[in-house]
Write a structure and sequence with these properties.
Blueprint (H helix, E strand, L loop, with lengths): L1 E9 L5 H17 L3 E17 L2 E13 L1 H13 L3 E11 L1
Antiparallel strand pairs: 1-3, 1-4, 2-3
Length: about 100
């Protein structure tokens, strides 16, 4: 397993409970597929460098996780199809 840093940006106009449910749902994908050490750091609403999908702000979430490749692939797939996630990036760090 490798250590990954994952950042994603959620639409800023989501209700708080909907946003919490989305973050929890995405974390469950990782934990259900054997990930360890999931650390969630919610940065909150920040200005975007440029507009994305007509939004000038977004809710930033950063994850630090040790995960198998399959868990990362599934999370990436789900984030691509979720309309509430307007941008995401996955960076592989050193071996765990």
């Amino acid at each position: 397993m490798k250590r990954y840093e994952i950042m994603y940006i959620i639409r800023p106009n989501l209700e708080e409970q909907t946003r919490k449910n989305l973050i929890e749902e995405l974390n469950k994908i990782l934990t259900n597929l054997g990930s360890e050490e999931v650390k969630v750091n919610e940065w909150g609403i920040k200005d975007l460098a440029y507009e994305i999908a007509d939004f000038s702000k977004g809710y930033y979430v950063v994850l630090d996780v040790v995960a198998p490749k399959e868990a990362i692939q599934e999370l990436d797939r789900v984030m691509k199809i979720r309309e509430d996630v307007i941008r995401h990036i996955v960076i592989a760090r050193d071996e765990a």
